[in-house]
Specification:
Chain lengths: ~90, ~350
C-alpha cells in the first residue's frame, strides 16, 4: 500500500495522523480511498466530481502528479496546498 | 447588547457592544480563512458561517457558540455530473418554515436545510432551469447572493443572482419564474437589453410590513417593486451615484431604504473621498445624505454587498457597515449619527447584526 502524507487541516480530519497506508492504483484512487477510510476528508481534496481541487498539489515521490498518475505500494504521495494567497 | 458577526478575508470576528458604548471582539473563528458570510438563526440561536478555503473549497459550519466548537454541515455539493464544483456559499437566510434555512451560492445555486443547518439539499428546479445555460457570471462569479422570504408564507421566495436577475417562486421552489421587467442593464448595448437575462442584481430586500414591496441595488440603478418583484421602477435619481452593492431597510417603515453609493462601476470607492450613507423615507422619491460621524475627507472605501446590516427598527434602528479597508461603522439612531465600531480588521466581506 502506498504512503499518503497530509498536513493540517487534513491531518485533523484524517484521524489526527499525517501518514496513511492506502490502497489504490492511481493518485485519484488513493485519495478516494483516503476519503472512504476517513469520511471527514470528503470534499476537501477531491471535489464533488471526484476531481482534485484546483489549488491542491499532489507529489508522487517528490514529482508533481495528477489524478491519473499510477502509483504502487512503495510510493510516497504528498498532498499539499498550493503556494498562493494573500 | 448588539452582536456583530463580521466575515473577513482572515476569519470570522464576533463583536459585541452596547449601542451607546464601545464594541469589543469577543471571538474569532477560522483564523486565516476567508469567511464570506455568517448569521445567527434567531429561532435556534445557532450561528452558521460560510468559509471558502482557497485550497479546500467552500464549507458551511454551524456552532451553538461561535467561540466554541464548529461542525461542518453536509450536503452542500453540486450533482456529480455538473460541469464544475460548488465555488462559494454567498449567503445564509432563515426561512419561514420551522427549522428552514436557505443558502445561496456560486454557480447560481440554492440549498435548503430543514434541520437548522446541519444537512442541506440542492433546489433541483432552479438547478435544472432551462434558461440556466444562458446565465452569465458577474465579476464575483455566478453568485446567488439574495434570498428573500415572504413573512409567514414559506411558499413564496425571491432570489437575486448576479448576473441572472430576479427569480420568484410561489410554490416553495418547485417552479421558478423571472421578475425582471423594468430593469435596465446599461452595461449592455441598447439592442442587446431586451429580454436579456444578463441582469446584475447586487442586493435585494423586502419590506416586512408590506411584503409586496421590495428594493434593489442594481449594477447601475436603485429600484423599487410594489408588486412582489414582478416589475421594477428606477428610484436612483437624487443619489450621487446609483452604483453600489449593499442595501438595508428599516423593518418598521416600508418606504425606507439605505444605500452606500460608490463612485462608478470602474471606480468602486466612496465618491469625493467622503463616506456617506443615503436614506430615503418616501420610497425613493428623495434621498438625503447621512454622513455625520463618518470620514468626510481622503476616505476611498469599498463596501461589499453583504457588509451592511441593521438591527432593531424605527427610531432605534441600528445600522452597521464594514469596508474592505477593515473599518466598521455603526449608527444607533437610524443613520443620524455614526461612530467607529472597529478600525483595523482584515478586509470585511460581510456584517450581520443581532440585537
Amino acid at each position: 500500500m502506498a504512503l499518503v502524507r497530509v498536513r493540517n487541516p487534513l491531518r485533523s480530519l484524517a484521524g489526527g495522523r499525517s501518514e496513511h497506508r492506502v490502497e489504490g492504483a492511481t493518485v485519484v484512487e488513493l485519495l478516494g480511498e483516503l476519503e472512504r477510510l476517513h469520511p471527514p476528508v470528503a470534499g476537501w481534496v477531491l471535489d464533488e466530481r471526484g476531481r482534485i481541487r484546483r489549488h491542491i498539489n499532489v507529489f508522487v515521490n517528490g514529482e508533481r502528479g495528477g489524478e491519473a498518475t499510477a502509483v504502487d505500494a512503495e510510493d510516497r504521495i504528498d498532498v499539499l496546498p498550493a503556494i498562493s494567497g494573500g | 447588547m448588539t452582536e456583530l458577526l463580521v466575515g473577513t478575508k482572515k476569519g470570522l470576528f464576533v463583536l459585541e457592544g452596547r449601542p451607546d458604548g464601545e464594541f469589543a471582539i469577543t471571538a474569532r473563528a477560522f483564523p486565516g480563512e476567508p469567511v464570506d458570510y455568517a448569521m445567527r438563526d434567531p429561532r435556534s440561536g445557532r450561528v452558521i458561517a460560510s468559509m471558502t478555503s482557497p485550497f479546500y473549497g467552500p464549507k458551511l459550519w454551524h456552532a451553538e457558540d461561535p467561540a466554541g466548537e464548529w461542525t461542518q454541515a453536509e450536503g452542500l455539493v453540486l450533482p456529480a455530473d455538473a460541469d464544475g464544483a460548488l465555488e462559494r456559499i454567498w449567503v445564509i437566510v432563515a426561512g419561514e418554515a420551522d427549522g428552514s434555512l436557505y443558502a445561496g451560492g456560486d454557480p447560481g445555486v440554492l440549498f435548503e436545510s430543514g434541520d437548522g443547518g446541519a444537512t442541506w439539499e440542492l433546489n433541483s428546479a432552479l438547478w435544472e432551469h432551462p434558461t440556466r445555460p444562458s446565465w452569465e457570471p458577474g465579476g464575483g462569479g455566478l453568485c446567488l447572493h439574495s434570498i428573500v422570504p415572504w413573512p409567514e408564507d414559506p411558499d413564496r421566495l425571491a432570489l437575486g443572482i448576479s448576473a441572472a436577475g430576479v427569480w420568484l417562486t410561489d410554490d416553495r421552489g418547485r417552479t421558478w419564474r423571472q421578475g425582471n421587467d423594468g430593469l435596465v442593464a446599461r452595461y449592455l448595448p441598447e439592442e442587446a437589453r431586451e429580454g436579456s437575462t444578463s441582469l446584475c442584481v447586487h442586493r435585494l430586500r423586502r419590506a416586512p410590513t408590506r411584503p409586496e414591496r421590495m428594493f434593489m441595488q442594481f449594477h447601475g440603478g436603485v429600484y423599487r417593486s410594489d408588486d412582489a418583484g414582478e416589475t421594477w421602477t428606477d428610484i436612483g435619481d437624487g443619489l450621487p451615484s446609483d452604483f453600489a452593492f449593499p442595501l438595508v431597510l428599516d423593518p418598521a417603515d416600508p418606504d425606507s431604504a439605505y444605500v452606500i453609493p460608490l463612485r462608478a462601476d470602474m471606480d468602486r470607492v466612496t465618491p469625493d473621498g467622503a463616506v456617506r450613507v443615503y436614506e430615503t423615507r418616501d420610497a425613493g422619491a428623495s434621498w438625503r445624505a447621512r454622513g455625520d460621524g463618518l470620514p468626510q475627507r481622503e476616505a476611498y472605501l469599498t463596501v461589499l454587498r453583504h457588509a451592511f446590516d441593521q438591527a432593531g427598527e424605527g427610531a432605534a434602528l441600528e445600522l452597521y457597515f464594514g469596508a474592505t479597508s477593515g473599518e466598521i461603522f455603526g449608527s444607533t439612531n437610524a443613520g443620524e449619527r455614526w461612530f467607529t465600531v472597529a478600525g483595523r480588521l482584515p478586509p470585511v466581506y460581510s456584517v450581520t447584526a443581532v440585537r
